[in-house]
Design brief:
- The protein is mostly helical.
- It has 2 domains: 1-100, Leucine-rich Repeat Variant, CATH 1.25.10.90; 136-232, Alpha Horseshoe (Leucine-rich Repeat Variant).
- It is built from 13 helices and no strands.
- The chain has helices at residues 9-24, 28-37, 49-60, 68-80, 84-96, 106-113, 119-136, 141-147, 153-161, 172-181, 188-202, 206-216, 222-229.
- Helix 1 runs parallel beside helix 4 (68-80), helix 11 (188-202) runs antiparallel to helix 12 (206-216) and helix 11 (188-202) packs parallel to helix 13.
- The radius of gyration is 19 Å and the shape is globular.
- The model has no long low-confidence stretch (mean pLDDT 97).
């Protein structure tokens, strides 16, 4: 599937309901605080997460299960709206229906990762959407091999984080290789992601992570080492 917006009558209904329901509950004071907290990445409506999720349930009440085209249409159309809560709705929608998605959805996921990029959307897309696609089709691991080399730090961060929920099915060779590939990256978000994915895998195999960090700590940034060993 390409990253163009496909036709979807279900998406038409979702978006009509969504924009009316969310806008009716907007809180300008909260919106200003949220925008400042998120470094002005986007304007906000000012919907706290519990309120937003309750509104989302109202939006989706009685609607059928989407197919892949519906999911792509909802997500891409949400991303076209300026207020950040619409992107959050899209991420939640994709997480809920990730099993409806094929490997052909990966270009759409990449479009979302690389558009108005910040940790609030990228991390959930990495762990729950891209990670779900790779778990369902391990052939996509070769795509992740390309993503870890990408000049876009958010694409590389997604490659680092996509196995966060894989636990004992984690491809440890790739996990450790990806960490080493980006160990010298100057950006905080990459160094933090290296530590985070190692810390998460340490819940499954602490000895492997401890051994890896001990062996490679000369190459890893101090931030990455601290994060990796935080719970060990």
């Amino acid at each position: 599937m390409s990253a163009t917006v496909p036709h979807s009558e279900l998406a038409d209904t979702v978006m009509e309901r969504l924009t009316v329901t969310y806008a009716a509950s907007a809180d300008p004071v909260r919106a200003a605080r949220a925008q400042a907290y998120m470094k002005d990445i986007a304007p906000f409506l000012g919907l706290p997460s519990p309120v937003r999720r309750e509104l989302s349930r109202t939006v989706l009440a009685g609607l059928p299960r989407p197919d892949e085209a519906d999911c792509a249409a909802v997500a891409l159309r949400c991303w076209e709206l300026p207020e950040r809560e619409y992107a959050y709705f899209a991420v939640d929608y994709l997480r809920r229906h990730v099993k409806c998605l094929s490997s052909g959805f990966l270009p759409v996921a990449r479009r979302l990762v690389t558009t108005v990029s910040w940790w609030d959307t990228v991390d959930a897309l990495a762990a729950h959407v891209v990670g779900g696609l790779v778990a369902a089709d391990p052939r996509l691991r070769t795509e992740m091999d390309a993503w870890i080399e990408d000049e876009d730090l958010w694409v590389a961060r997604t490659a680092l984080l996509h196995q966060l929920r894989h636990k004992d099915t984690t491809d440890t060779g790739r996990l450790f290789a990806y960490c080493l590939r980006q160990a010298g990256h100057p950006d905080f978000f990459i160094r933090k992601a290296i530590g985070w994915c190692l810390r998460e895998y340490a819940k499954t195999d602490p000895a492997a992570v401890r051994d890896f960090v001990e062996r490679e700590k000369g190459h890893l940034a101090p931030l990455s080492v601290r994060e990796a060993l935080k719970n060990l």
